[in-house]
Fold this sequence. Notes:
The chain has 162 residues and is mostly beta strands.
Amino acid sequence: MFRTLACLASATVLALTAGAPAAHAETVEYTVTIRTADVYLGGTDSTVKGKLFNKQNGKWTYFDNSGDDFGRNDTGTYTITVPSTFGTPTHFQLWKAGTDDWAVATPIIIKGPDNYSKAAYMEGNYTWFTGEDKHNRCQVDRANHVMRCNHYSPEMKLLNYE
């Protein structure tokens, strides 16, 4: 008797939803591809987060895949989910916890729906996240073609990328 009722309930749900229009997605996903530079002590085991924003300030997203992320010369792709009302991202920012260093190669590639393909560039060949708390900003080291930041990258404008 119970099995018959369960089958009838399942059949009713299927019949009711079969002709229903698809609901609009409440969220949109963007992928962020980051490459750690191929330099001595360039990798990190620290927590790394990123966020997209435009006129709205996005939320920080923890970047973590299975295995060891952000090793020297490693490339990882991570997902940032935003509300469908967010609009088109115009900027991207990184944050790294901890006191170890991390060297991020440029560009950082962001892809999304409708052929959205942008790149975030930092000044120089790569950016060192030093983890020092001396300042809360980045400094350009033109002699070595790098940017040095403590925990936060600059807010990077997203440019077209093919």
